[in-house]
Design goal:
CATH class of the domain at 515-753: Alpha Beta
CATH architecture of the domain at 515-753: 4-Layer Sandwich
CATH superfamily of the domain at 515-753: Ribonuclease Z/Hydroxyacylglutathione hydrolase-like
Helix content: 40-55%
Oligomer: single chain
Strand content: 15-25%
Shape: globular
Largest sheet: 8 strands, mixed
Number of strands: 26
């Protein structure tokens, strides 16, 4: 059977991806024309099947490229022309306010002469937005910014969601002026908000975030729970709250259980699917699942077979026709990768298990079915997860096997709970206490799996090569079997395991005795420095403003060194760009000691979460109130407290480490007042490596200080910022001092390795 829709979807999606990531915008119409001409030329092919496929692929590719270009010209380009302006806007609120610790976000549709125009995300960083409802009409002073460029680089996040422009609300300028005439269209958003409120009121605080994520796809509260969210990422189970086919399968199954199977029930399920899709925010994974589930329900009614590739292609075409830039969304890519694995691999896996396992036993059949689904969904999505999240979750099949049936039951029971709780609050609260126990089972499993050795590997060169080798082995095995060579699946499996052991052993042996490493990690505008010898490892600071959590970045690099334990985590002070990722790091690796200034100012509100994580993980907390020296394995660590006049930057910890004969000085955010205090106290020795203070600020790394320190190498941890860091004067002073200068915004991770008798070298 020629699956025409699947071939068309493949061509359309491939062209949209090329336009999104590679091809120049100006050349898209010409490339689309060339594809259309190539489609006509393909009619000369002799084989009818090849001719049809080539024609479909090329015509669909031309359409996909033109659709992407049209979206750019009609939505993105006009919005980009307004970037930088501060304007008075009128807008319709399209969802409830999203509140975070340090900002609030409002989703709105801007009005232009009474007509709806750009879809926008409006942010407020100072103050609090009122409790707005979808359909409210508001006015405000807003500074417009780009939805295409983020932190100086091309971003796919907002345009993939259909957002045309971003804006920053001037504090106290927002006012509600009325209601949109068609605000009834936002009924699904109001229903979703009521479900969230019922979850908060009926469920204990430790269970509500996960249930809300399951029922509505809103993971805001779940992300604030660093312990459980980190465990779910490491265990590879975040897909359960990315509302998808599993949820709709359970939902329609529940409806069929209540009403019985039949034509009428199938028809009734269709509006239920539409309502759920709207309530979950029409995310790509939800729309994909809704289209496929709807086609599966409709196929028997029109006496057709539900074909997996065709249903998947229909979902892709529908999504990309509405917004071709959705191809850049991580959720869409992962969702379709998972489903492609299910469609293409699951039947063969199920058949293989049927031949080799005693499937007549219910427990074996149940476990094998869940395992096959997990492996099939992971097969195509794992490389994407490694690229986007920097993790290769090796034990996700185990976590899914132990919890997926429970999650499905919790999802169905959650809606029943909300229905009962809305009518009978007392009964709902009692049932909520009962429902919390299976939720706790799931979160307990996730934490236990995430805590196992090698639950997840960081995605770096060694693991990337290993992963590519695994895919190569199984591809070769499949080709050989297709050619009649009966090679057991154990062979590529054993080779993959041997390769994994080699990668892990190489990491553990990467630092022989008498050697050291200093790694200034690229955490954008922030700082995280790893100091390691053969016997010990210390991290100084763990924060940054990048897309990746600095705690994940530090944990990933420690894993590259073969370390799952950290001797000490030193936080020079509690500004978010130096401490934001500390909580995640404490949950990712075992940390023996957490050291921070006794008088640290917690203006950024990070301390409570860090201390809670330290208590849960059994980490000793040391509040430093005087200079301290300690020998940790083969690292001699001196922690200084300048306590200079000025803000918290001048009163934080300065760390001096001696590893294998090399001295490294990490200044945190210390500026020249702290430097002068250290000089007065004669605490500045000759230094081999200097991690420059305050991201290369003009007020740090003064001439007198550099004369005393005489660093051979200086590293500046810096990212995109509006402060002018690193300052040209600072760079000039470092060069005059004879230091070789490296910076993370240019060089990425700056890793310096040395042996005791050798000169240090930059890698």
């Amino acid at each position: 059977m020629v699956r025409k829709l699947a071939w068309a979807a493949l061509g359309f999606a491939a062209a949209a991806a090329l336009a999104e990531y590679i091809l120049p915008v100006r050349g898209l119409p010409y490339i689309a024309a060339a594809l259309a001409v190539s489609a006509l030329l393909s009619l000369a092919l002799r084989r009818a099947a090849a001719r049809k496929r080539a024609l479909l692929l090329l015509l669909a590719a031309a359409a996909g490229m033109l659709a992407w270009w049209g979206r750019y010209m009609t939505h993105v380009l006009p919005s980009e022309a307004k970037v930088g302006e501060t304007v008075h806007i009128e807008a319709i609120v399209t969802d409830y306010v999203e509140r975070h610790d340090d900002y609030e976000r409002l989703e709105a549709r801007l009005l232009d002469g009474g007509k709806r125009s750009e879809r926008a995300y409006l942010y407020l960083y100072e103050g609090t937005l009122p409790d707005l409802a979808p359909g409210d009409v508001v006015q405000a002073e807003v500074r417009l910014t780009s939805a295409v460029i983020r932190r100086g680089e091309r971003s796919h996040i907002y345009t993939s969601q259909g957002v045309d422009i971003l804006g920053y609300i001037t504090p106290d300028s927002l006012a509600v002026t009325g209601r949109w005439a068609h605000s009834w269209l936002y009924f699904p958003q109001r229903l979703s908000q009521n479900v969230k409120r019922l979850c908060d009121s009926l469920l204990p605080a430790d269970a509500a975030p996960l249930v809300k994520g399951l029922l509505t796809g809103d993971t805001t509260d779940l992300e604030e729970d660093a312990e459980n969210y980190t465990a779910m990422r490491v265990a590879g189970v975040l897909h359960i709250v990315a509302v998808s086919g599993m949820h709709l399968f359970v939902l329609t199954g529940f409806v069929q259980l209540l009403l019985g199977k039949g034509r009428r029930t199938s028809l009734f399920c269709l509006p239920v699917i539409v309502l759920f899709t709207l309530m979950a925010g029409c995310r790509p994974s939800v729309v994909r699942a809704a289209v496929m589930q709807g086609l599966y329900l409709l196929a028997p009614l029109v006496k057709r077979e539900a074909d997996g590739p065709t249903c998947l292609g229909a979902a892709a075409l529908l999504l990309l026709a509405a917004n071709p830039m959705a191809i850049g969304g991580v959720g869409l890519q992962l969702s379709f990768a998972c489903m492609a694995g299910m469609v293409l691999l699951l039947p063969a896996m199920t058949a293989w298990m049927g031949r080799h396992l005693p499937m007549e036993r219910r427990l074996v059949s149940f476990a094998a079915g869940n395992l096959a689904c997990t492996l099939a969904a992971t097969a195509f999505s794992l490389p994407l997860a490694a690229v986007y999240f920097g993790l290769i979750p090796l034990l996700s099949p185990l976590a899914n096997l132990l919890t997926l049936p429970v999650v499905e039951a919790v999802f169905a029971a959650g809606y029943v709970l909300c229905a009962i709780g809305a009518l009978f609050p007392s009964a709902g609260a009692f049932l909520g206490q009962l429902l919390a126990w299976p939720v706790r089972w799931c979160t307990g499993v996730y934490r236990a799996v995430a805590g196992l050795p090698f639950a997840a590997l960081p995605a770096y060169a060694g693991t990337a090569i290993w992963l590519a080798g695994v895919y190569g082995l199984f591809t070769a095995w499949y080709i050989l079997r297709r050619r009649g060579r009966r090679l057991p699946a154990d062979v590529p499996g054993c080779l993959a395991l041997i390769g994994l052991c080699a990668v892990l052993l190489a990491a553990r042996l990467s630092l022989p005795a008498g050697s050291g490493v200093l790694a200034v990690l690229d955490v954008d505008q922030g700082e995280s420095v790893v100091l390691a010898g053969h016997d010990a490892a210390v991290v100084v600071d763990c924060g940054g403003n990048g897309l990746d959590d600095a705690g994940d970045t530090a944990a990933g690099y420690l894993a590259q060194l073969g370390r799952s334990r950290l001797d000490a985590l030193v936080l020079t002070h509690l500004h978010r760009d130096h401490a934001k990722g500390a909580e995640t790091l404490l949950y990712r690796v075992r940390v023996d000691r957490l050291i921070l200034p006794a008088e640290a100012d917690d203006a950024d509100g990070t301390l409570d979460g860090i201390l809670a994580a330290a208590e849960k993980r059994g980490t000793q907390v040391i509040l430093l109130d005087k200079p301290t020296q300690a020998v940790i394995g083969d690292i001699s660590l001196t922690l200084l407290l300048p306590q200079a006049e000025g803000d918290e930057n001048e009163q934080g910890i300065v760390a001096l480490a001696d590893i294998a004969g090399r001295r490294a000085l990490v200044m945190g955010d210390a500026g020249q007042p702290a430097e002068l205090r250290l000089l007065r106290d004669r605490s500045v020795p000759d230094t081999d490596i200097l991690v420059a203070g305050h991201h290369g600020s003009r007020t740090a790394s003064g001439a007198l200080f550099l004369t005393a320190a005489r660093p051979e190498t200086a590293v500046i941890s810096v990212g995109y910022n509006t402060y002018g860091q690193p300052h040209p004067d600072t760079l000039a002073r470092l060069e005059r001092a004879g230091a070789a200068v490296y910076r993370t915004d240019v060089d990425g991770d700056v890793i310096i390795r040395w042996k005791e008798a050798d000169d240090s070298g930059h890698q």
